[in-house]
Specification:
The protein is an alpha+beta fold. The protein has a domain of 49 residues. Helices cover 50% and strands 16% of the residues. A two-stranded antiparallel ribbon has the order 1-2. The longest helix is centred in the middle third of the chain and has 24 residues. The chain is elongated, with a radius of gyration of 26 Å.
Length: 76
């Protein structure tokens, strides 16, 4: 979104310069908090990458059951 679009929306909504300033300060504050969190976060993004699981064979024996109004196949 472009800032001029935001200014136009605020003007059409009846907000003035004080509302524009409030919105701009809020966005800047959120971006600062996001950057601070990224630095302080102990999460290692490399560790979050999981290898895909090996595809298990689908069961062919079982029965259908309705759970919460949805058909569900229960493997035997």
């Amino acid at each position: 979104m472009v800032w001029s679009n935001v200014q136009q929306f605020i003007a059409e909504a009846g907000g003035g310069e004080s509302k524009e300033k409030e919105v701009m300060e809020y966005v800047e504050k959120v971006l600062r908090y996001e950057a601070e969190f990224a630095i302080k976060s102990p999460a290692d993004k490399g560790k979050k990458q999981k290898k895909p699981r090996q595809r298990q064979s689908w069961c062919t024996e079982g029965h259908w059951r309705t759970i919460d109004d949805r058909p569900v196949f229960i493997c035997a």
